[in-house]
Amino acid sequence: MSAEGKVKLPPLREVIATHGLQASKALGQNFLLDEQLLDRIAAVPGAIDGQPAFEVGPGPGGLTRAILRAGAKLVAVERDRRCLPALAELDAAFPGQLRVLSGDAMAIDARAEAGDGAHIIANLPYNVGTALLIGWLSAPWEPLPWWSTLTLMFQMEVAERIVAQPGTDHYGRLAILSQWRSDARIAMKVHRSAFTPPPKVMSAVVHLTPKAAPDGVQLKHLERLTAAAFGQRRKMLRQSLKGLPGALDALAEIGIDPQRRAETVSVEEFVAVARVLGR
User: Fold this and answer.
1) Per-residue b or e along 122-143, where b marks 16 or more CB atoms closer than 10 Å to that residue's CB
2) What is the rounded distance in angstroms from the CA atom of residue 133 to the CA atom of residue 6?
3) From CA 22, how far away is CA 1, in angstroms rounded?
4) Known binding residues
């Protein structure tokens, strides 16, 4: 049932004022208050009515409201105990849909709490967003990960690194980790003025949909390969990879010119080299 049909919810600005929820710079908080924008973000993963969802850092509960309005059964993790009373009001407005965990998302087993098939939807705290993403992308693929989709708000620069293509300045390890077994796209850009307080940079919502991992490739080999290649990204591969056993022979086997630089090598080519390294 909608909030309007059960409990009339106050505007988000009123919630923030009532509970004294000024955003904490130490926790990387920037609150979104535009409910139409929040509904658009919650719609990015598609129909989620009756499906499990997981949110990190709900704060005063703006995106939380939107996810609940979309009908999901939501587990939300909040580190800032000041926000818990505001989130409890949402529990009353959407009975049976919301479970709030007080704690650090970096220390919580999201799969155990949210369940397989969960849609992860979050305006991530800036200071832990990339680390959380890497953790979700490093999950076992069996043949898909435990989560169904990722819909995540990042600073624009991080979003561009996730979706970057070869030959661009943003292309690097994060793009490869994101794209080797998922489809990643920027779903929408969000102006800094949409946040309270406004951050210094623009933001974007990134949507990732998992796909089957390539056969015969282990994440550990891909990570070692890309760490070496992009550790000296301006050098030719013959220089940056010479310290990784078997890497130059793998390049030769695949037919990749060792005079190329890492930023020109496609995700598929890195995967092919990692497959040879894992044999």
Assistant:
1) bbbbbebbbebbeebbeeebee
2) 35
3) 30
4) 30, 32, 57, 78, 104, 123
Residue 118's closest CA among 57, 179, 76, 80?
76
Among residues 185, 173, 138, 137, which one has the least CA distance to residue 267?
A: 173
Nearest to 209 by CA among 230, 244, 182: 182
Which residues are within 8 A (CB) of 45 and not within 5 positions of it... i.e. 6 or more apart?
A: 119, 121, 148, 149, 151, 207
Cis peptide preceding 52, ω within 30 of 0 = no
CATH code at 219-277 = 1.10.8.100
Instruction: Tell me which amino acid residue 196 is.
Output: T
pLDDT of residue 2: 44
Binding positions for S-adenosyl-L-methionine: 30, 32, 57, 78, 104, 123
The answer to whether 128 and 104 have CB atoms below 8 angstroms apart is no
Does residue 81 sit in helix, strand or coil? helix
CATH 3.40.50.150 positions along the chain are 12-210
The answer to whether the predicted template modeling score (pTM) of the entire model surpasses 0.85 is yes
Residue range 27-55, pLDDT digits in tens: 666 788 899 999 999 999 999 999 999 99
pLDDT (tens digit, 9 = 90+) per residue, 75-105? Answer: 999 998 999 999 999 988 999 999 999 999 9
- Given this structure, which CATH class describes domain 12-210? alpha beta
The span from the CA of 48 to the CA of 46, in Å, is: 6
> For the chain, which residues score pLDDT lower than 70?
1-7, 23-24, 26-29
